[in-house]
Amino acid sequence: RCVDALVHEKFGSVHARLLRVLRDKQKLDEKVVAQATMLPIAACRERLHDLALAGVIDTIEIPRSADRNPSRMFYLWYINSDKQMRSAMRFVYQAMSNVIERGAKEASARALLVAKTRRQDVIADPSLLTDGERKELQNLARIKQRLAVASVRLDSMLLVVYDTDPHSADLQLLQ
User: Fold this and answer.
1) What is the rounded (10 degree) CA torsion for 101, 107, 111, 117?
2) What is the pLDDT of residues 28-53, one digit of tens each?
3) If phi over 0 gives left and psi between -120 and 50 gives alpha, with beta otherwise, what is residue 105?
């Protein structure tokens, strides 16, 4: 469910639908996936490749003959759960990095105002701040609060991913 939410956020509802179909039916040919999701084959193929590049799904090659000629192979799409967990962790860590970076950017954009609020004369007499500066401080506080909430949500998502895959504590999985 956590991976579905991440895929829905990152790629959209059509990609999430593809993922649900693959989870329900295990290994499928792209034509069958296209029929099950009611998408044109070209659009389905493009979205499957998006998910494969993100590491959420993978392909398996099944040869029709002994010579293993690529033109005579079936390519089935499936969910590789280890790879999917690594991708989910990567998505969450990237989102956490974005939240931290956004917080730093917002604080640096208003650094002069924050420095002004820390001065002794302003602490003693807050009326030295203009209405615009007060509104900007309230806006900064609101942004920081939203970023803190996002960070907590991402932490909880990361805990769900760790609980789902007990071997994910290995640092090798983050590569």
Assistant:
1) -160
2) 888 888 888 888 989 988 999 988 88
3) alpha
Predicted confidence (pLDDT) per residue in 108-163, tens digit:
888 888 888 888 887 787 788 788 888 988 898 999 999 999 999 888 878 877 77
Cβ 146 vs Cβ 139: under 8 Å: no
Other C-beta atoms closer than 10 Å to the C-beta of 74 total 12
Tell me: the pLDDT tens digits for 61-79?
888 777 777 777 888 888 8
First to last CA, the chain: 23
**Which phi and psi angles does 61 have, rounded to 5°?**
-100, 130
Distance CA 24, CA 41 (A): 19
User: Which DSSP letter does residue 58 get?
Assistant: E
CB 146 within 8 A of CB 105: no
**CB-neighbour burial class of residue 19 (10 A; exposed 0-12, middle 13-18, buried 19+):** buried
Structure tokens at 86: 């690594």
Measure the CA–CA gap between 154 and 89, rounded to whole angstroms. Answer: 10
Are 55 and 90 contacting, i.e. CB atoms less than 8 angstroms apart? yes
